[in-house]
Amino acid sequence: MPAGDISPKEFRAAAGLFATGVTVIVTESGGQVRGMTANSVTSVSLDPLLMLFCPNRKAHIAQDLPALQHFTINVLRREQQTLSSYFAGGWREPEPPPFSFLPSPAGPYLADCLASIGCKTHQVIEAGDHWLVLGRVIWLHLGQEPHNPLLFMAGTYRSLDRRVAERVPDFIP
Fold first, then answer.
1. Cα distance between residue 73 and residue 103, in whole Å
2. Strands (E) located in the chain
3. Which of 51, 33, 35, 44 is nearest to 117 (CA)?
């Protein structure tokens, strides 16, 4: 199908078949902590250590990008699905789900998550209706076992079938 004939809905459906983890990006600006759910997150480089997340230009967090100095990428556990909905703006209950933030050298991070990656903002790039935010990794936190990540694919939350596993050959030089 030629690119001019592809609708945003069709593109989203195809891209949505790429299973991803679910994260909450946390920043602090002007003494206020903000968070947003993101699955458009990836590691970029081992030298230097770089991570990337891609907020929509209309996202609350995007309004603070000029002042963004640090952020944490918090990988959610399967049991934290409610936090994904809450930080995505889809929470319909009168009270938020229970959560707390802890301090780190990169700013607040989400307690009890699978892992947190703290970054110093490296570069912000315009990209269509989103931003590309590159962060230099300055801090890491690995959560307690078991490592059961919350996954997202085709518009639904998923989980791993831990009975099926095949080790990937080591290819990092």
1. 13
2. 20-21, 23-29, 32-38, 41-46, 49-53, 70-75, 101-102, 109-110, 115-127, 130-142, 151-153, 156-158
3. 51
- Token pair, residue 65, equals 């990008």
Tokens coding 165: 């596993």
Residue 6 domain-assigned?
Answer: no
Residue 2 covered by a domain: no
Collect the ranges in the chain with pLDDT lower than 70.
1-3, 163, 165, 171-173
Identify the CATH number of the domain in which residue 52 sits.
2.30.110.10
Q: How far is CA 79 from the centre of its chain?
A: 16
- Number of domains present in the structure of the chain: 1
Task: Look at residue 67 and tell me if it is in a domain.
Answer: yes
Q: How far apart are CA 114 and CA 145, in angstroms?
A: 8
Query: Which tokens in the block code for residue 53?
Result: 């997340």
Examine residue 115 and state whether it is found in any structural domain, yes or no: yes
The predicted-structure confidence for 27-46, as pLDDT tens digits, reads as follows 998 888 989 999 889 999 99
| Joined tokens for residue 138 | 């300055």
